[in-house]
Amino acid sequence: MSGSIASYDQLVRQVEALKKENSHLRRELEDNSNHLSKLENETSDMKEVLKHLQGKLEQEARVMVSSGQTEVLDQLKALQMDITSLYNLKFAPEVMSTGRGPEESPPAPAPHRDGPGELGRATFRMLEELDRER
């Protein structure tokens, strides 16, 4: 009978250890989830700022083309391409490093002008078109 008591005590200790580990893992999962939500909100805010800046750049480009300031316009084109490249370099690896599978990854930007890369290309095309018209 003492063997079964020792066995029972051993099982109780194992269950307690598993409960502690489970509790620890739940806290860690909750912390990770909160951190991910925070990062997603920050990314969303940054995208809104980028869209706002893109709109301002497009307005400035139209004004510059109409007033003949093409040197500054060429600098803006280069800056826009740099910003787009930097954004893609900075945020594309972070999405991959979250450990999510392809089915959990955020959808790729639609072919219309939603993503910053598309905005940059669309702006570049628009600026070239305005330059040709001039």
TrEMBL record:
It comes from the Eukaryota. It holds the Pfam family APC_N_CC. Coiled coil: none annotated. Residues 6-57 form the Adenomatous polyposis coli N-terminal dimerisation domain. Gene3D superfamilies: 1.20.5.10. One of its GO terms (cellular component) is catenin complex. InterPro entries: Apc_fam, APC_N, APC_N_sf. GO terms for molecular function: beta-catenin binding; gamma-catenin binding; microtubule binding. Residues 24-43, 96-122 are annotated as: Disordered. GO terms for biological process: cell fate specification; cell migration; negative regulation of canonical Wnt signaling pathway; negative regulation of microtubule depolymerization; nervous system development; pattern specification process. This is APCL protein. It comes from Leiothrix lutea (Red-billed leiothrix).
